[in-house]
Amino acid sequence: MLTLQSCIRASTEKAEEACKELVSSDTSYQTWKAICRRFGKFNSKKNAKYNWNGVFLEPFMRSLAKSWDTVFNSQMQSIHEIYAGDLIRAIKRFSADIKPFLRSMAEASASKSPIDFLEKVPYLERKTKATVFAALNSAQRQAQDIHRAIEPVITGHLKPAYETCSQQSNTGALARMKEALVNHIRETNQIMYCESSSLLKSKLRKMTRNVEEFLTRAHTETSDYLRKEIRDMIMLAVAKDDEAREKVRSTLRKDLSMGLNILEASWAEVASRPTEKIDPVKMDRKEDDENSDDTSDDTDEGDSNERIESTSDDDEDF
Fold this sequence. Notes:
Layout: H1 4-24, H2 29-37, E1 41-43, E2 49-51, H3 52-109, H4 113-118, H5 121-166, H6 173-237, H7 242-271, H8 285-290, H9 295-310
Helix pairs in contact: 1-3, 1-6, 2-5, 3-5, 3-6, 3-7, 5-6, 6-7, 6-9
Region (Disordered): 269-318
InterPro entries: DUF7605 (IPR056024)
Protein name: DUF7605 domain-containing protein
């Protein structure tokens, strides 16, 4: 698995090579000056396009490219398909488990509402699957935003070198500009890629939390919907007889609550798995230890799981 430390090392080496290519090119003094005054980007009158920020961004993004593509365009698709399948299978098991109770209730109350309730299961399956894949689409959009967020870090880091180069004039100015850029890259490009890595790690953590929130919503909304529908169905089926209603409610509350709790426990277990693999790069252990003050992110994730598990305590909603 690619680590951010290995990505930084590879990018640092490639950046120095890219810098040597820039200074050895036949770019004129006037063009160098124009590029630096515009902080790395310049389109000449001859339609030549220069983007030095992109030159130094490319080694970092190329180091990430393979793992990034694998995760966001292949692995995440598979993870979400498996997750949606697990949730839908749990719904099917739940509907199969409660079917005998609903049939008994329909016979005892001479009402069709318990049987009609089962017809809503396919809708729940479609809704759950749609919510899960909305999470996937959200993650992929955020991945594009994360890509775009790295270039401003590179540009900001190169700004001092551009400013130094812009101030050069008179005899030997081009040589001094080249020397200034080479020295800046050689001395500080590792810091530039460390800053890029820190931003990447922060953005990925935020994306993971957002995905977890989407996935949690996929089953908590379904659970809330089920509880409401079951409660309304019970009241409608036995509305004409208070004594029968209380007897049926007493029996079914226990049976259906047990079924819902099993369903929610299954969802909670499933929900703890998908985002564990959503990680195109990993931090080296040493760096993780140095950044141990980032525990607030993990706390948020723990709170999410606690919210999932707490839904099973609401039996009295029926």
